[in-house]
Every structure is written in C-alpha cells, then in structure tokens.
Design goal:
The complex is a heterodimer of chains A (265) and B (367). With 265 residues, chain A is an alpha/beta fold. In chain A, helix 2 (25-38) crosses helix 7 and helix 5 (104-113) packs across helix 6. Chain A is built from 9 helices and 8 strands. Chain A has an 8-stranded mixed β-sheet with strand order 2-1-3-4-6-5-8-7, sandwiched between helices. Chain B has helices at residues 9-19, 34-43, 57-69, 80-85, 87-96, 125-128, 144-161, 171-175, 238-253, 256-259, 279-289, 309-312, 329-336, 356-366; strands spanning 2-8, 24-27, 50-53, 74-78, 100-108, 114-118, 137-139, 164-170, 177-183, 221-223, 262-265, 271-275, 296-300, 302-304, 319-324, 342-347. In chain B, strand 5 and strand 6 (114-118) form a beta hairpin. Chain B is built from 14 helices and 16 strands. Classes of the chains: A alpha/beta (265), B alpha/beta (367). At the A-B interface, strand 2, helix 3 and helix 5 of A face helix 3, helix 5 and strand 10 of B. Bound molecules: thiamine diphosphate and iron/sulfur cluster (SF4). Residues 19-20, 23, 25, 54, 124, 128-129, 203-206 of chain A line the site of iron/sulfur cluster. Iron/sulfur cluster binds at residues 19-20, 23, 25, 54, 124, 128-129, 203-206 of chain A.
Chain lengths: 265, 367
C-alpha cells in the first residue's frame, strides 16, 4: 500500500492497533482499504460498520464515519445506514462467530434482501477476542477452549450459505492470497447488492497455539496448501475423483445481478 | 389549521411520527402494536421515507440506530417480548447517544402472557432493562390525542437529549378510538450540529455533544465501548468511564423537572391519585362523579426521569394512591420520594383497567 493511501485511510492517532503480532486481520484490512481506494470512493461518503470481536475492531482504525456495534448485529445496523442514505458506501467487517453464530439470522436476511453493501468476514475459525472458544466455523476435531476434546459439530460453509441466501457476489480467499483478495473485494464493492467476501485468516494466539500451527508462517502455509480452487474442485468432481477432506475451496462462488435493495438512484 | 379525525391510538401514533418528520421505520409485527407497522408501511413510502420489516426486534432497533446516524428521525414499535429483545441495543443507543424513538404498546406478561390485553408491566424495564447505569425518557399517553402529541414530543426529546425515548403506551390506548385534532405542522427541535473544532464526543455546557451525522464529513467513530471525547475506545480507564456514564445519566436527570409533563388537580387534597396512561381516565371519572370529595390527581405524561417534585405540589397530601396495570412498579418510585405520607399501590393484572367504582371505594376506605 502506498504511503499516501495508508495515511489517507487510517487514523494515525489510533495506531498501533490491538491485533496480536502475526494476526491475519491486518492483512484483510489493508486489502480492503486498497480496494476501496481503487474504487475512488471518498472518505466522507464511506461508512464502515462492524459487530464485536477482534475482526470487528477494524473500523476503529479507519478514517471514515464508522459504527462499532453490538455482537452479531452489524448487518442490522448497516441495513439502517444503507437504507436511510443509499448514497453512502457501506462496508461491514465481521468475524466468523459474530456473523454466523449470534448474527446468523441477520446474515441470511441481509443476503436475502441483497442490500447494496460489502460484507467482509475475517474467518479465523475461532472466537479470538474472548480467548479461543469454538465457533460454528471451527473444523471438526480442532481444539478450542470449549472443544477441549476436539470440535464435533459440523461447520458452516459461509460462502455457500451466502450464495443460498441470495447475495449477488460471493468469494472466498485467504490472507495468503493477497492479490486475489484485493481483486475480489474490488468486484464486491462495485457489484450492486450484497457482496460477501470470506477471508480465511490466521489467528496465532487463539487458534494456532492450540492446533499445532503455533508459528504464523505455519498457519499461512496451511491455508496455502489446503486451499483448492473452485474450478479444480469441480474438475475433480467431474472426473469422479475424491477431494481430500481437509481441503477448503477458494475463488468466486457467484456473480449475479438479482434485484437489490439500497442501490443509489 | 387542524383537521379533526376519529382514529385508533396506534394510528394516531403513526400520524404523530409522520408529523414529526419520522423518515425511517424498522419493525417486526407483534400484537398489540402491529397496526403501527402496518400504517407506517402504507404511509412511509408516500412521504419519501423508509419502511423496512426486519427479521426480528433486535434487528429492528439496530437498523433504527444505524438510520439515526445518517440523520434520519427513526422509530420502531413493539410490545413486551419484542421490547425485551431490544435491551442490549438500547443500551448501545444510550452509550453512543443515538436519538431514536421506541414505542411499546404494552401487553400482559411475563413471557407471551396476554397478547391482546392491556398492561403496564414494562415500566421498570424501560428504565432499568438494559445493563449498566442509564437514564432514559419515557412518555405515557392516556388519550388518543396524547398518542399523537407525545409521539411528536418523543422525537423532539430524543433529538434534544440524544437518547432513546420510549412511548410506553398499552393495548387500551393503542386500540381505543377517539376524536383527535391533527395540526398542519408541529414544532420540531432539530439535532444540534457539532461546533467547529469540537471532538466527536466533547459535550457542551448542556452536557450534550453536537451530533456528527454520517456522510457530512465529521469522520466520527462510534462505539458502545467506553470511549474518550474523540469517540475512541478506552475501556480500562476508571476515571474516564465514571465521567462518561455520569454525564450520560446527568444530562437527563439534571433536567428532569424541565422535562416533566403532568396535570396536577386539586392540589390541596388529602387523598391523591397518581396515574399514568389508562388509569388516568378512570380517575378523571371519579373526580367528575364526586366533585364534593376534593380528591387530588397527579397525572404524569412523562414518568422517566421521575419528576419527584410534582408530588410536593400536593401540600396537604396524606395518602397517594397509585392505580396501575402492574404490581406496583411506579408505586415503588412514588414511595421512594415521600416521607410521612402513605403510598397505596393499587396494582391490577389480567388486562382490564380499573373501574371508577373500585377507585372511589379505595378513597372512602382511606378517608
Ligand atoms: C451478546 C454478547 N455475547 C457475547 C459476547 C462476547 N464476545 C465478544 S467477541 C465474541 C466472539 C468473537 O468471535 P468472532 O466473531 O469469531 O471474532 P474474532 O474475535 O475471532 O475476530 C464473543 C462471544 C458479547 N460481546 N456480546
Ligand atoms: S486473538 Fe487471534 S484474531 Fe484476535 S488479534 Fe490475536 S491473533 Fe488476531
């Protein structure tokens, strides 16, 4: 990121941020700011909204008007902002727990309404801020403070959920795929309707430490080597080949132009 | 010019909101408040405003708060169970000083209770329901006309004090039909703009900071965490937290006698009824039927912040009787503010209001 972009979009008087060393959230924040800046959006026309969690602290570091709301409810607040003033660009930062556990209902309904905003979920597969409890995205067998014997519940595929619920644009990448992530966020920003971008991120403190990925590099490498392009997955399926269980898909899940709410006239 | 209409209380609430310039309504249907959402859905688009039926009451109040930050005059309407769901976000509105109006057409509780019957069981919930120390403003209409007037007033007080205000009505008034007069225009108190050079949460002499509407270049950060005057989280600073929460409470409590709205009748009486909402009507009937008795009546249109000085207007009072549709929620508050006088709670549950006869019997019992 150029110094100019950095100085323009970040609240210099608020830094350094609270994220742990090696946390993936900073990367996602930077990717978002790059994409927003490339859109040519003005600081004064852009609003960031978030819920509660490490990821949700992001708006507090960005120079625009911003609402750091209650746990899980960011999309409800953002709906009010966008519907009351469609001329504002609205971007939501959320965590996997914030979005899919307590906020699950708001998530599906925001997608169903297809409200014109971009939702970026920093999915670290765990509750970071409260110290590492299990989330609806903690993979089966992984350790958290509330799944000390390994998680047993099936996980949500947030991207698939957003597609099924009606979002116009859905993509998933990781904090390793910086270029792809910036590009996907950019497409999300310019697509009318709800865009959902899931960014898998490393959380060395709450997740990595308990799951044999203690080093930041190890977790990033894990994401790189376990991310399978959607196209490849489809190809393997067509060929009747097996897809390894611990792989997850990345890429663009959907890009469509269904009727949306809150699109400026 | 005014127009005369015969309408339902819930409809009058909508008309009051529209007259006050309400341009955002987010809600979720619940008896006995549903007519408000329905009428707003019908009327709001014609006024260029937004009606949105959210997925639940938590989302409704969230959307209302979000809309308020864009400068909208935003409102929601609900009843007991929905009101309970809103509590966390209402605390957020208090902490972030977000003006908004919440209408609670109360019904019998606890739980789903009596959906189609009247009650006033949420009077303490609107004062103490959200976690932490808060002060809010609650208005209670006793006529359909007051449904209109006090809805307008709710918006003005919300904007002036930057606080959520509660129109704590009930099924009786919400579903009652009466003649009302609707003026061509009403007084509108706008939100104060931030003064140049002031920080986002830097309060002025009245303890209230100017409102930095989103999209106008203020670049405000708004958080429910304990924040400094810039609006930035500083959640582990004891002095800052104390000063912030005290200001949020004091900005309302220090003005409670100015905010007060009441009628005081027969102030020299020894026996005095204290009412708010529907029991006001029954007490008025008692006074009308028994002019010879010199019965006092204090009717509160604003119950929170509680205007305790209004009790002192009754200089000869020996007994305060508090008929209400709960087991003594406001009677407890009256009790807190009197010494040497008797306070008789006349709580009533089940969904019907007090009859003038039973109220008069109580007067005779006391005398
Ligand atoms: C109503 C409510 N319940 C619980 C909490 C406690 N809480 C704070 S953050 C959090 C989970 C955060 O996890 P996630 O959304 O995945 O974000 P992360 O911190 O991992 O970025 C929880 C449960 C809260 N603040 N509010
Ligand atoms: S706990 Fe995890 S998600 Fe939170 S800041 Fe630390 S590394 Fe990041």
């Amino acid at each position: 990121m150029s110094t100019e972009t950095y100085e323009k979009w970040y609240r210099q008087d608020r830094l350094p941020h609270i994220y742990c060393t090696g946390c993936g959230n900073g990367t996602v924040m930077n990717c978002t700011i790059k994409a927003v800046d490339a859109m040519g959006w003005e600081i004064d026309d852009t609003v960031f909204v978030s819920g509660i969690g490490c990821s949700s602290r992001a708006p507090g570091y960005i120079t625009t008007d911003s609402l750091h709301t209650t746990h899980g409810r960011a999309l409800a607040f953002a709906t009010g902002v966008k519907m009351a003033n469609p001329d504002l660009h609205v971007v939501v930062f959320t965590g996997d727990g914030d979005l899919s556990a307590i906020g699950g209902n708001h998530f599906i309904h925001a997608c169903r309404r297809n409200i014109d905003m971009t939702v970026i979920c920093m999915n670290n597969m765990i509750y970071g801020m409260t110290g590492g409890q299990g989330s609806p995205c903690t993979p089966v067998g992984k350790i958290s403070t509330t799944t000390p014997y390994g998680a047993t519940e099936p996980v949500f595929d947030l991207a698939e959920l957003a597609v099924a619920a009606g979002a116009n644009y859905v993509a998933r990448w990781t904090s390793y795929h910086v270029a792809e992530l910036i590009k996907a966020i950019g497409v999300g920003l310019e697509t009318p309707g709800l865009s959902f971008i899931e960014a898998m991120v490393q959380c060395p403190t709450a997740y990595g430490r308990r799951n044999k990925l203690r080093q930041v590099g190890e977790q990033v490498e894990y994401m790189r080597s376990h991310a399978m392009l959607l196209a490849k997955k489809h190809r393997l399926e067509e060929q009747g080949k097996e897809i390894p269980e611990d792989m997850f898909t990345v890429g663009e899940f959907i890009r469509r132009y269904r009727p949306a709410m809150g699109v400026p006239k | 010019m005014t127009t005369l209409e015969f309408m339902q209380g819930n409809a009058a609430c909508c008309e009051g909101a529209l007259a006050a310039g309400c341009n955002f309504f987010g809600g979720y249907p619940i008896t006995p408040s549903t007519e408000i959402a329905e009428r707003m859905a019908l009327k709001m688009p014609k006024k260029g405003g937004v009606f949105i039926q959210m997925e639940d009451e938590i989302a409704s109040i969230g959307a209302v708060i979000g809309a308020s930050w864009t400068g909208a005059r935003a409102m929601t309407a609900t009843s007991g169970p929905g009101f309970s769901l809103m509590m966390e976000n209402l605390g957020y509105a208090v902490m972030t000083e977000t003006p908004c109006v919440v209408v609670n057409i109360q019904r019998g509780g606890p739980s789903t209770g009596q959906p189609t019957m009247s009650a006033q069981g949420d009077m303490l919930q609107c004062r103490f329901g959200s976690h932490g120390d808060i002060s809010t403003i609650a208005l209670v209409p006793s006529t359909v006309q007051e449904m209109f007037d006090l809805t307008v007033k709710s918006f003005n007080l919300a904007d002036r004090f930057r606080v959520p205000t509660f129109l704590m009505s009930d099924e009786t008034i919400g579903h009652m039909r009466e003649k009302i007069s609707i003026p061509d225009s009403v007084e509108i108190i706008p939100r104060k703009e931030p003064k140049p050079g002031k920080l986002t949460y830097e309060a002025e002499d009245d303890m209230i900071p100017g409102f930095p509407t989103f999209g106008k270049g203020y670049r405000a950060h708004v958080t429910g965490l304990t924040h400094n005057e810039r609006g930035y989280p500083e959640a582990t600073n004891p002095e800052l937290h104390e000063a912030l929460v005290r200001r949020l409470v004091d900005k309302i409590e220090s003005k409670r006698h100015e905010i007060a709205d009441y009628d005081a009748v027969n102030t020299d009486a020894e026996t005095v009824f204290v009412t708010y909402g529907p029991s006001t009507r029954a007490v008025r009937q008692v006074l009308h039927d028994h002019p010879e008795e010199n019965i006092g009546h204090l009717n509160l249109r604003i119950v929170w912040p509680f205007p305790e000085d209004t009790l002192k207007l009754f200089t000869n009072a020996k007994t305060f009787i508090v008929p209400e549709l709960n087991l003594g929620q406001m009677a407890r508050e009256v009790q807190r503010h009197v010494t040497g006088q008797q306070v008789i709670p006349m709580g009533r549950l089940g969904g019907t209001i007090h009859s003038p006869d039973e109220l008069y019997e109580k007067v005779q019992e006391v005398a």
